[in-house]
Amino acid sequence: STTLVSEMLEEVADRFSFQLQQRKIEIVIRVEKGVTGLLLDRDKIDQVLDNLVSNAIKYTGDEGAIRLEARKIEKDMLEISVQDNGIGIPKKDLTRIFDRFYRVDKARSRNMGGTGLGLSIAREIVKAHGGTISLESELGQGTRVVFTLPIQQEEEDEL
Ligand code: ATP
Ligand code: MG
């Protein structure tokens, strides 16, 4: 059945509300007008969102900010982005960041927990749904991950 995109994003934020509060990280959600109900594999897309938001929290300092955005782009695609103003990723690591088990400089990720699988799983899920995922990052400035999903409207959908 259809998923309300705004509801889906609010619920991700809710799942992390304890960590967000503890770290005093602010989360802002923006859903473009006109993005309403979509047919999505909700469990899988939640897995992608949880991975991206957990990364954003892990690699952002206290009192940082995370922005979750959804909008329509050309050819009936939905674009969802997760942006943080955290530690960023060095240029030399960007090409390998979606590889399985790849983690930037063990020293900084050692005490963070995790296996380095999150982004590779996210990419597999997004690809399996006919979308793409990419990441841009500036060391010391922050990171933005963007993924797309084809929009399939349910027929006779009243939304
Ligand atoms: P897991 O997701 O399995 O718990 P992980 O978070 O280390 O472990 P990925 O999500 O695949 O693994 O991320 C790979 C690496 O990319 C991370 O170890 C981290 O170094 C870097 N990274 C990912 N997201 C961010 C981000 N938002 N800001 C800075 N670095 C990031
Ligand atoms: Mg991760």
Automatic annotation (TrEMBL):
Residue stretches making up the Histidine kinase domain: 1-153
Source domain of life: Bacteria
Parent-record interval covered: 452 to 610 of 610
Lineage of origin: Bacteria, Bacillati, Bacillota, Bacilli, Bacillales
Localization in the cell: Cell membrane
Protein name per Swiss-Prot or TrEMBL: histidine kinase
